[in-house]
Design a protein that fits this description.
Order of helices and strands: EEEEH
Strand order of the largest sheet: 1-2-3-4
Radius of gyration: 18 Å
Number of helices: 1
Strand content: 35-45%
Helix content: 40-55%
Shape: globular
Number of domains: 1
Amino acid sequence: MEEFRPMQNWKWVGPFLWLTVHYDHRFDAVDASRTRLTWTVDADGFGAAAFGRIFAAIYSRNLDKAIPRLVSCISKQGEQTIQEEYYHDRT
């Protein structure tokens, strides 16, 4: 973990082959019920520009699968919270 700012972002650094990869996860409030997530990935090291494109393609495919799962999970938690509040208020 390189940086942690609750409700704003977190950054971490890790190795990938001979490269050093920097990940930044940003959270920006859009309105009271929506948040924009932005992932930024940078790399340092020999051939980072060329190899970075390959890494980005692989990472993008992983995110294309992970993001809908994250949205589904968050939505289910939100529905569960609404249901819990509804039933709690009725008892």
